[in-house]
Amino acid sequence: MPISVCILTLNEEDNLKRTLPPLAGRFAEIVVFDSGSTDRSIEMSEEAGATVHEVQWEGFGTTRRKLFEAATQPWILWLDADEVITPALLDEISDLFADGEAEKKAYSVNRMVFFEGKWIRHGEWFPDWVMRLFPADCWEMIELDVHESVKVSCPTGRLRNLIEHYSFKDWADLEKRSQKYAKLWAGEKSKTGRTPPSGGMVIARSWVRFVKGYIIKRGFLDGDHGRRIALSIAKEVRAKYDYWKTLAKNEVA
Q: Which one of 165, 191, 217 terminates a domain?
């Protein structure tokens, strides 16, 4: 298929064992930007036929934009190193190109997280629609330090089948990365010059997120996993604003 699969890596050996095999022989190009791996990420990518560029990390948004710009095919498939394309999704993408040139359209794909031995089917983690397949000439990157995304200028649609997402190793990894993302989010907010909300408002927003994930979006159906995930999201909301307040105080000082 005339698609460049674009992947960012940094010590992703464990994830690439799942991610790379389904891609073999199905896509015209795999492009990997590696920002300093010390494990077998580069070697494994090259063995899978990928073109690997060793690059300096410039944040998610900027680095991913440069990754997409390095693609040579008329279509781009954004794939994270901890994601796996299911056989059904591969076949669905192949069907788009069955008659040659596919319709010029950008497609969102739904992701399902596998975490601590369980598929998470409810709450704020599912459904999780993300823009992932699009023509190489109709996108622009919204360059944020965290949760970057692409804006497309062509018609959009949705693919039916899933990407499997192996996003966190365990609860400790979830906590560590939540704190990392909270700090990155706070850094973005501090650039706006706005004043962080009051402590009472932060607590309210945190618990609104818990209610949304655990009750409204039925996270309780995932059992104790659902409860702990909803609490983790609420805790991250609180951390985001706490970090933002700290940055705002330092700027005033």
A: 165
Q: What is the pTM of this model?
A: 0.91
Residue 117 CA, chain-centre distance (Å), reads: 20
Residues 65 and 158 in one domain: yes
Digit-coded pLDDT (tens) for 148-181:
899 999 999 999 999 999 999 999 999 999 999 9
Give residue-wise pLDDT tens across range 173-219: 999 999 999 999 999 888 888 899 998 999 999 999 999 999 999 99
Q: What b-and-e string marks burial along 195-228, b requiring 16 or more CB atoms within 10 Å of the CB?
A: ebeeeeebeeebeebbebbbeebebeebeebbbb
Residue 33 in contact with residue 53, Cβ under 8 Å?
yes
Number of domains in the chain: 2
| C-alpha span between 236 and 125 (Å, rounded) | 14
- Provide the domain limits for residue 9: 3-165
Handedness of CA 18, 48, 65, 11 (dihedral sign): positive
> 217 and 156 in one domain?
no
